[in-house]
Design a protein that fits this description.
By secondary structure, the chain is α+β, with helices and mostly antiparallel strands. Helices cover about 30% and strands about 30% of the residues. It has helices at about 20-25, 45-55, 65-80, 125, 150-160, 205-215, 230, 265-280; strands at about 5, 10, 30-35, 40, 85-90, 110-115, 130-135, 165-170, 175-180, 180-185, 190-195, 220-225, 235-240, 245-250, 255. The strands form 2 sheets. Strands 7, 8, 9, 10, 11, 12, 13, 14 and 15 form a 9-stranded mixed sheet that branches. Bound molecules: pyridoxal-5'-phosphate (PLP). GO terms for molecular function: L-isoleucine-2-oxoglutarate transaminase activity; L-leucine-2-oxoglutarate transaminase activity; L-valine-2-oxoglutarate transaminase activity.
């Protein structure tokens, strides 16, 4: 296995970051996660665009251009011989004596690694998963893909201990999003409901692509907030993320959704997304 650290491709045991790294001390950094299928990065331009935005919002200079990032990502995938899985990349404000203020003249710390895993054909995708709702305990800038993920670590662990595979976070009675995914329901009338973009959620890249695919497919789309009760009563529910694509949800807080099996609209969207990921349209 080969990982990336500050310009070098190294075995993981040689890729060491000093304890004074601000990512380690302050969670002072941002990240991206990109899906890989057939050895190709899925929606990589959109991920790099979101990375640029996250870096700008926390005032770290982007260490690479979009084409440099792409070349490094592709080289890492190639060196690991990965055909299906996940590429993680992270940029922190760098290494400096511990002090809250931005250090001057410090280079950011850039790390990347890959994780081989099945995406296209998994039990979760075939049979659906259970989610449980938990309070959303995060900060006010959830639109930034910050490496500070303690609230999600606790939310997802709570979900696991309750026998579920994902946590749906709730604020003021409305679902915000999953611990590491965007949240969708399908109404009995067959329209898709998804929360509009704001500082309350991460602008999911898979969400964005899925919305485009559903529009092209003529599925009615409602971009609005939905409550936990509406989700319990939905015909279907699903989540999206770069590392899982589209995953059906068959129970929420132990209540069966629809007939307790992945719904037809969810299955169709998963199919459309998979097709797009495998045969990206030539722009
Ligand atoms: N929401 C949160 C909080 C996430 O952490 C993620 C992915 O990690 C998503 C949504 C899904 O975003 P994407 O489709 O870009 O992976």
């Amino acid at each position: 296995r080969i990982v990336f650290l500050n310009g070098s491709f190294l075995p993981p045991e040689e890729a060491k970051v000093p304890i004074m790294d601000r990512g380690f001390l302050f969670s002072d950094g941002v990240y991206e996660g990109v899906g890989v299928i057939d050895g190709r990065l899925v929606d990589n331009e959109a991920h790099l665009e979101r990375l640029e935005r996250s870096l700008r919002e926390i005032r770290i200079d982007n260490p690479y251009s979009r084409s440099e990032w792409t070349r490094l990502e592709q080289e890492l995938v190639r060196r690991n011989g990965m055909t299906e899985g996940f590429l993680y990349l992270q940029v922190t404000r760098g290494v400096a004596e511990r002090d809250f203020f931005f250090p001057q003249g410090v280079a950011p710390t850039v790390t990347m690694f890959t994780q081989a895993k099945a995406i296209a054909d998994t039990p979760a995708a075939r049979d659906g998963i259970a989610v449980v709702t938990v309070p959303d305990r995060r900060w006010e800038r959830r639109d930034i893909k910050s490496i500070s993920l303690l609230a999600q670590v606790l939310a997802k662990q709570e979900a696991r201990e309750k026998g579920a595979q994902e946590a749906w976070m709730v604020e003021d009675g409305y679902v915000t999003e999953g611990g590491s995914s965007s949240a969708f329901i399908v109404t009995k009338a067959g329209s898709i409901v998804v929360r509009p973009l704001s500082n309350a959620i991460l602008p999911g890249i898979t969400r964005q692509s899925l919305l485009r695919l559903s529009r092209e497919d003529g599925i009615v789309l409602e971009e609005r907030r939905f409550t936990v009760e509406e989700a319990y009563d939905a015909a279907e529910a699903f989540l999206t993320s770069a590392s899982n694509f589209v995953v059906p949800i068959v129970s929420i807080d132990g209540r069966r959704i629809g007939d307790g099996k992945p719904g037809p609209i969810t299955k169709r969207l998963r199919e459309l997304y998979l097709q797009m990921a495998r045969e990206p349209a030539v722009a």
